[in-house]
Amino acid sequence: MSQDNMIKLECTECKTINYFSRKNKKILKTRLELKKYCKHCRKSTLHKETK
Questions:
Q1: What does pTM read for this prediction?
Q2: pLDDT below 70 — which residues of the chain?
Q3: Which CATH superfamily is domain 3-50 in?
Q4: Which sequence spans correspond to the domains of the chain?
């Protein structure tokens, strides 16, 4: 995988980076938001894309 397509997903509640993913930045201009499981909060929370 190329590094320029990689994104980090950060939990909105505890602010820890839990997931790494990739996206096509030419097609998707907005930041990605997904509901994922956070092992620190022990529940499903909203994860937002960071820089």
A1: 0.83
A2: 1
A3: Ribosomal protein L33 (2.20.28.120)
A4: 3-50
